[in-house]
Every structure is written in structure tokens, then in C-alpha cells.
Fold these 2 entries.
Entry 1:
Amino acid sequence: MTGWLAMGGYAAFVWPAYAVAVIVLGGLAAMSWRRYRAVRRELDAARRPGDDA
Amino acid sequence: MLTRLANPARFMRASGAVLPWLAAATALVLAVGLVWALVFAPPDYQQGESVRIMFVHVPAAWMASAAYLFVAVASAVALVWRHPLAEIAAQAAAPVGAAFTFVCLVTGSLWGRPMWGAWWVWDARLTSVLVLFFLYLGYIALVNAFDDPARGGRAGAILALVGVINLPIIKFSVDWWNTLHQPASVFRLGGPTIALSLLLPLLLMALGFTLLFAALVLLRMRTALWERRLRALRLYGGVSLPHAAE
């Protein structure tokens, strides 16, 4: 396990590379999903009869 | 099929049905791909374990160019046929393409430091991909720079089309100039030159990134269509509009 984590001496390059990919792409996916839910909720609220939004 | 789906209401129905399956497939392929890339793929005989960076870097680079082509083609359709879905597709894809380009640049830098001894060199491949990143940022900024979304959309579409010239430059930069960046080893005449044990996880990650791109573009297109409907509702009150999606 420690041997695997060490990545043959390239740990300082391999792990940050994967971390950046997960953070950037995962972050974009999370942001897109939150916006999707928020807009859906706003739309439902705007459509409610008697609601002036 | 594309012309049938080009109706916003049909698009909302179809994309709503496809999206959960697409998201599940993306998660599954990326999970298997990551474990394969990080655990089961063998170290390269020259690069050692640093080759694992390639399983993220190369698919991200492919997606960076492919996403730009998608933005450009959708922009052309939007300019020529004035189809609202095409413009929405281009604008939904641009931030996803920019994210892939950023990942490509950073992971390439993290590989270049131990392998080349430099975080960055101004060779033709690296420079043209940096230009691609700025094209994405310029497109996104231009689209949002106008009070009238229609004008922003047109200006952005024209920029996207002009920027297409950069795509062949990226692809052939390693052949046309003496670059430090290595030439193509997968999509080349005569077939791939990398070992199957490294090629398979690479292709799996590429499939995962492609699925992720498709899922995010659909999700962001649905969001944009809802936003348009919301704007219309707020402008015209409760009056029902033709083409109201879903």
C-alpha cells in the first residue's frame, strides 16, 4: 500500500494530476447539478397559480 | 433523428429520459477506468509510474479539441439556420471544454516536470493548446458581454468559428514543428504504437470522459432551456407560450 502510494517516486506528480482532474471535472458537475436543481425549483415556483414571481 | 430532436419540447422529453442512464454509465466507466489506470495498468518501461498521468492527460486533451469542434459546429448551425437549440448546445458545451483543456494543461505540466525537467516549454503543441484555453474563455466572456443574449450568441458563434483554425494546428503541431511534446501514438497512420496494457485503460478513460461530456452538456442544455422559459414567464406573466418546453 505504501509502495503504491509512493508511485515509484512520482507521487508528487501523479496524485496532484488526479486530484486536479477530480476537483475540476467533479466541481463542474456539482455546480451544473446545483444550478439545474435551483432553476427547476424557481420554475415550479413561478408557475404556481397566484404566485407573482 | 437530429431534426426530430431539434424541437425543444422533444429535446426536453428525450434528454430527461436519457440523462439518468447516461449519468450512471459515466460513473461506472470512470470508476472502472480510474482503478484500472491507478492500480492494474503496468508502469511504463521508460516513464515508470509517471505514465499514469497519461490516462488523464491524453483523454482530457482529446476532449478539449472534440468539445471545441462541437462548439464550432453548433455555432455554425446556430448562425446559418438560427436554431435556438444549437446556440444553447454551443454555450452549454464551452465551459465543459474549457474544464477539459485546463485539466489537460495542468496534468501535462505535472508530467513534464519529472520527464522533461520543465513545468512548461513554449513549444508548438503546448502553446496551441494554451491558445485553445483562451479561445474558450474568450467565447464564454463574449457570449455574456451583451445585455441582449441574441447579440452575445451571434458574436460568440463567430469567434468560435474563427477559432477552428487552431484545431488542425494543435493536431499537426507535433509533425510541422520540432516540438518537445511527443508525436501521436494512438491516432496515427499504421495504428497505435503503445502497448495494449496501457492502451486499454487509456481508451476506457477516454470513453468515460466522452460520456461525462455528453451528460454535462445535456444537463446544462436543460438548465438553459428552463432559464429561458423562466425569463419568458417573468416577462409575460402566466401567458402560455408556443414552444414552451416539456
Entry 2:
Amino acid sequence: MPWTTLVAGCAAGTGLLALLAYTTSQALGPNVVALTFLPAVAALAFVPRDPFRPAAQAAPAPAWLTSAGQTLLAVPVLAVTCWGQLRLMDHTAIRPPGVYPLIAELTGWCAVSVAIAAGCDRSRYADLGGAVAAPVSLAIIAITRYVPRIDRLLVTPPGTARAVTIAWYIVAAAALVIGCAALRDRWRRYTRVLRRR
Amino acid sequence: MSMPAAGAGARRGRDAEDGPGLAARADARSPGGARRVALSIARVEAALLARGVLVLAGLVAGGAVVWVFVWPTEPLWWNAAWQIGYGQVILAATVLAAAQLAAGRARRDGMRELYRSFPVSPATRTAGHLAALAGALPASVLLAGAAAILIQARGPIGVPSPWVLAGGPLLVLAAGAAGVAVGTRLSSPLAGILGAMALLIVFTQSGRFGEFSWLFPWTTPAQLGSLPGPLTGYPPGGAHAVELAGLAVLAAVAALPGARGRTRRRMRLGAGILAVAAVCASCLVQLQPVPTAGLIRLFGAGADPVAAEHCTISAQVRYCLYPGFGRLLPAVQAPVRGVLAEVPGRPAQVLTIAQDLSLSDVDQALVHGHSRQHLALWNAELTAGPTGTAAAIYAPVGYWPSTRFALALRTAEWAVRLPLPGNLQTGCVAVDQAREAIAIWLAITATRTSAAWLQAGQNVTAEPGGGFISVAFVRKAPVILWTEPAADYPVTPGGPQTTAVGFLLARAMTSLPSGKVESVLDRAWPTWLNWRTTDAQLAAALGIPVPVVHIPPGLSRPPATGPGVAPPPSALCTS
């Protein structure tokens, strides 16, 4: 279990948010909290990888248990990180904004990161693990935030809080299904050679 | 990655007493040999960096960011050069991550012990990684060059600051050096990713720190695009470039491992001290307040723009533009002339079209270090808005050509005698008045604007499932409004509130031959200017049906009034 990586990512984001909270007089909004949660999401991309999976596949226990267990162990750490950052945001705001869309968005980000990490683990880039999964996750998160038409569904504003919350929980559920399917997949998947030699 | 041949043919596993091996190791340890090895490493690593996926992705993302910021705004070089830096920040973040991965590769692959057995010192290898950062420069220069070409093609105002443009590549080099420094100590890929994210987070949040925002690697100056020109020390391009260069040298010194030999240690210490001194000196320069004379001129130009501008009179319209904005004159004249050409009879007074400053409040980065009296005076001048000239329309600096339609509409509203409120007043509503539809039609015709853009997501027919609905209550009756696009860009004074019916009627008029509409208007122009002439009369004269807008049941009554509950009711335009 890459505890150091996970804790470093969570601590880095929370530390940065704390620094912003105590050095500026302006309130911190949900967008700032989302931004400082990204290091934790990037660290989560390193968690599902099991470096001993080829050996574990020969054992009686299912090989996906390790990856799934590591991911489950990371959930409380992420929850505490999210709670801490929301408390910091409340501390700086006179009237704290509603956080349900934000929590849904962060949940969706985490699920997408796990799904991508599990997918990378089944590809030719398995040895690189989080080094590939983290940038890909961050790129997808940037797309959901800034590409027109997509941001109408997944960002408030322009989307409504209720619609965005539902959309992100749907994304999280879909990402978890994909992630579970990838974890259970025993074989690495490589692209086929397109030309016959 | 396989290490290039260390030195001139040093081979692993040879007997230490072998003559050629000894000679090769001695050559590798010599200054000239070490330099050759470093250059070999730099060549290979630079090639990997230049074509690496991370750097290329950073280039594409940086280009997209530059496009998003530069394209919609008025091309003012003192602002656009700084906006090019936004894309350079994205590229710098990816270069940081890529450099960290490259420098930490030996540790991650468990090759440290192997490399330690080579005659080349770790410092030489690190120097090679640092020199390899030159591989990221082509991407940075390409980004800056392409952005500069894009901006130049739009006919910008002003000239670019070479210091600000040079700041981009310096930022990329500094970030790369920081990546190498991190990679020589922390090999986990997460370290580079965290470093890149720290750079991005710090960049996005730098605007919170007032005058200290200039000290960050890059920042987003809030009001630079609203100024009629750069001020002395705002932005502090030269000092900022020196700061970035100092940070790059400091990161490079930090990346190098401990040196052997007193001379080398002294050289590194000296370089580090010089870099720290340069950074500190440049920070002090950047924190200097903007000279008072410049700010007095700036805020005076905001309080009475016409006095500070160059004016020309053409066809009974006075056009006033700030110095340096002369090339905008034909573009500003076009919509105004287009409107007035269709108006049979216009008011006798001369209309003034001028620029003003759209500074809603004073940026701390602009006015820090000045007395409270000055601050209070400048805030008061900004709040009051432009004074002096009656029959004047002001377009804010930094938003052309987004304000083109608003300028045409305001001119048309003046021509049809619709009352234009003061800067801080809410406009009246010209409910069921033909002159409102005529004003909108004049503006659409003069600017050749598409109806889809004008509607812009608004549900002007109030049908279920459409876009947003804007409502006002006039004499307790609900009126569906149409909000002109680009209403965020404030042309002052801010015109009467326009109705959905007026917009729909004007849109229907655009589908008629313009000659027919002109002949109807010419026949009874004074009648159409009367506020009692209705939309139905205009529609009947043109032979088109009156548009119908249904009021949704939930909006049929005005909401209860009270503090924080609902806006006050709107007045009917009766003059």
C-alpha cells in the first residue's frame, strides 16, 4: 500500500489550502477547494497498482483483492482530507456555500482516477502505473471543467446544483463499474498489430 | 534509458589496471572529459524532452489557454504579452514534471549503484540534465511566437514588451531546473506531479495577494486589460524577468549535488548568493509603487475621458479615443454611421462617442504605497463615472469589438429619443412602444448581427423548457425582457430595459426588405418617436403580425417586496 504517496498527496493539497486560508483575507470558495484536492486525486492514481500482481495471480486468492483492498483503505484518508479542506473553507467564509455539488464532484474525480489507474494497470504502461494514470486523470478533469457543453452538465454554474450532483454521482458509479471490471481482468490488453507482416 | 558511453569508452568490468581503461577513466574525470559527457547526456535528454508526450501535451494545452484568453479580448499588447504567459505556465508545469521524471530515472530504475561505479560524477550527470532543459525552449518559443503572430494579425494597440515575452521561456527554464532539483532527491513520479500542480495552483491564486502577486512566478493582473496604456512599473516586466532568471539559477545550484574541491564549492556558493541577491533585488523593484503622477493621469482620464482623448468630428458625431487607439476609429465609426444613416431625423445636439475605463474598483496592485486620501479620491472618481458631456456614449477600453452591438443599440436608442438613465440608475422599460423595436432593428441592421447570437439562450417567448427568462414588473404587470448580449461589457450609460416583444418584432422586421421598412419609417418618423405609438401600429404599418409572448403562470404576480426579497418595480418610459 503506497501510504507515503497517498499521504503526501493529501497533505500537499491541504497544506496549500491552509496556507492560502491564513495568508489572504479573501474567502476561499468551492473552486479553490476543488483545485487543492487535485494532489490527493493524483496520489490516488498510484494506489490501485499491485507490483506483485503477476505472482499473486498464481495464488489461490483472487489477484484483484490487493488492489481493491488498497483502494478501500485509501477511502477514509481521502474522506478526512476532504473534510479538512471543507472545514478550512468554512473557516474563511462568512456564509459558507452549499457543498453537495462539490462533494459529488470530488467523489467523481476519485472514481475516475481509480478507473484510469486500473485501466493503465491492464495496458502496456502497467510498469509506469500512476505516472501515466495521474496526468491522464488530471487531463480528463480539466476537460470536464473547461470544455463547453460538457461543463454545462458537470460544473456549477452554468449547471444547477442538483443536476451537477446527480451527474457526478452517475459518473462516479460508471467509473467504479469500469474500475472493478479492469481490476478483475486477468490479462493485460495490448493493441493489435494492424499490419500483417 | 541507457546511459550514453560515459567518458571516452569507459567499460564496465574491465581490470582496473588495464591501461586503456585507466586512461578512459582519467579522461572522463578531467574537466574537458566531464564537459563532453555532460553535453552527450544533454543532447540525448534534450531530444527526449523535446519530443516527450508531457511537453507536447503542455504545448497544446498552453496554446489552448492562450487562445481562450487572447481571442475574446481586445488586443492590447501590454495585456496580451502577459496573457501569453498563461500558456507558458501550463508548459512550464509539464516541463517540471518531465524534468523530474528524467532526473529521477536512475533512482527509480535501481541504477544508482551502477552509475556510481562510472568515472563520471553525479554532478556531471545532473549538469547534463540541466543543460538538457534547452530541449524545452523550442516549445516555449514556438508558443510565444505563434501567440504573437495571432495577436499581431488582429491589429493590436501598443507594442509588446520584450521583457514580458522573454519571461515565458525563463519561466519554463526555471520550472525545469526545479524539476531536476526535485528529481535528484525524490524519484517518485508523484513528486514531479505535485510540483507541477503547486505551480498551477499558485498561479491561479496569485491574484489574492495584491501587490505581492508580482512576486509569484506568473500572475493574472486583474485590470491590465482595462488600462489605456501601460504605466511605469505596472507591469514590472524587466524586474520580473530578472527574478525568473535568478530562480532558474537558484534551482540549478540546488539541483547539483555537493561539490568536491574548495574551488567548486566556492563557485557554487557564489552563484547561489548572486542568484538570491538578484531575486531579492528584483522583488524589491517589483514592490515599488506606481508613480503618483501616472495614477493621477490615469484616474483623471477615467473621470473626464473626453479631456484626455483625441477627438474628431464626422457627420455631427464626435469620436474620442485615448492616445494610441486611433486605428480603432473606422471600426468604432462603422456601427454608429450604420445606425444614423437609417434615421430620417436625429436630435439636434452633437453625439459624443468616447472610450472610458471599466475599472469598477481600485486594484491593490495598482495603488499600493499611496496615501489614503489619494485612494479615497480615486475610488470616488471611479464610482462617479465619466462626467461633463451630455449626449455621450462611452465604450470601455479592453472590450472592443464585443461592445460593437451595444454601441449601435445605444446610438439607436439616442436617435429614437429613448431616455438613457445615468450610470447607476436602472433603465425604464419601453413596454409596447414602437420606437424600442425600431432601435433594436437599427442596431441589428447596422451591425449585421445574427438573431441566434442575439437570443443567446434566452427564452424570449417564455415557452416551457426554453432558456432563462428575465422579468420586470411595470405598473404591477409582468413584462418578459430581452437582455442584449455582451451585457457584461458595460457601455455607459446603460440604456432602457428592452422587452422580448420589442426584440421579436425587430427580428421580424429584419426579414422584410430594408427598403420597405425605411419607407414606412420615413413616412411618419415623428409618430414613431412618440412613446404612445404601439408595437401593434408599427406591425400593422409593416404588414406583419405582432409577436405574442405568454407569461408563465408563476410570474403573473409581482413577488412580495422587502429587503433582500425582490428588486423594486421598473418604471415605464414616458419621455
